[in-house]
Design a protein that fits this description.
Its main location: cytoplasm. The two termini are 17 Å apart. This protein has helices at residues 19-29, 59-67, 86-95, 105-114, 128-138, 143-151, 153-157, 172-186, 190-207; strands at 8-12, 34-35, 39-40, 55-56, 71-77, 80-85, 99-102, 119-124, 165-168. The chain is built from nine helices and nine strands. 47% of the residues lie in helices and 18% in strands. The strands form two sheets. Strands 2-7-1-8-9 form a five-stranded parallel β-sheet. It has a four-stranded mixed β-sheet with strand order 4-3-6-5. The radius of gyration is 19 Å and the shape is globular. It folds into two domains: 1-33 and 98-208, Rossmann fold (3-Layer(aba) Sandwich); 37-97, Guanylate Kinase phosphate binding domain (2-Layer Sandwich). Strand 5 and strand 6 form a beta hairpin. By secondary structure, the chain is α/β, with parallel strands linked by helices. Bound molecules: adenosine-5'-diphosphate and guanosine-5'-monophosphate. Residues 15-21, 134, 137-138, 169-172 line the site of adenosine-5'-diphosphate (ADP). Guanosine-5'-monophosphate (5GP) binds next to strand 5, strand 6 and helix 4.
Length: 208
């Protein structure tokens, strides 16, 4: 039929809302979807692996990558740089593989600007109270960091209007199903594949 270029999916939303959890489950169920590995200047946490969790960089190396225009987007979050290296992503999209980015919101908006075909999904918590419980329950941040992340959550939710889709992350499996639905619909959007479809019929017509 037609060669469909891969879809760039961006999962974003406040810290602790469940992006990482949903992303992991979605990738387990969709082996041909690639996760973008970000670069960061943050130190590795216990159990994290170079090249799988992140590419860990010094500030100097990260800034060199910025100057060499190697990022699709980058942001400074909680005193560290985080960025999405662009080459690997575009290579996968060209091969027809979907790529998923799990990034915070400043970065998501930069992606949308640089690559408007990206599908930006806002992962919402069921409530602010549940969000706080999840951040605390995860146990990866200090009390100050928890407070900082929780306090910025409502301001982040106010940016919902910049996104294409929202998902209330009540039950992880249901959220994953909703992403499947979004991807299915996006892959049948006329605007995405109109040229490829018309080319296909034109080529056939030439042979008739
Ligand atoms: P994020 O990546 O958005 O910061 P995480 O995926 O790390 O968030 O999730 C934060 C915490 O909430 C984790 O402890 C995770 O197990 C838990 N969690 C995620 N989704 C759900 C859900 N639907 N119901 C209950 N707990 C959840
Ligand atoms: P953590 O330090 O907990 O791994 O990540 C902190 C925040 O940075 C999370 O909200 C995560 O989604 C975001 N993040 C991870 N990688 C990137 C990236 O490449 N770009 C941007 N803008 N944010 C990222």
């Amino acid at each position: 039929m037609i060669n469909k270029k891969g879809l760039l999916l961006v999962l974003s939303g406040p810290s602790g809302t469940g992006k990482g959890t949903i992303c992991k489950k979605y990738l387990e169920k969709n082996k041909n979807v690639k996760l973008s590995i970000s670069a960061t200047t943050r130190k590795p946490r216990e159990g994290e692996i170079e090249g799988i969790s992140y590419y860990y960089k010094t500030k100097q190396d990260f800034e060199e990558m910025i100057n060499n225009n190697e990022f699709l987007e980058y942001a400074s979050i909680y005193d560290n740089y985080y960025g999405t290296p662009k080459k690997a992503i575009f290579d996968e999209l060209e091969k027809g593989n979907d790529v998923i980015l799990e990034i915070e919101m400043q970065g998501a908006m930069q992606v949308k600007k640089a690559y408007p075909e990206a599908v930006c999904i806002f992962i919402l918590p069921p409530s602010l109270l549940e969000l706080k419980n999840r951040i605390v329950g995860r146990g990866t941040e200090t009390p100050e960091q928890i407070e900082k992340r929780f306090n910025s959550a409502y301001d982040e939710i106010k940016k919902l209007g910049d996104y294409d889709y929202f998902i209330f992350n009540n039950v992880v499996e249901k959220s994953v199903e909703e992403i499947h639905g979004i991807v299915y619909s996006e892959k049948n959007k006329v605007i995405r594949y109109k040229n490829e479809i018309l080319d296909m019929f034109e080529r056939e017509l030439e042979k008739c």
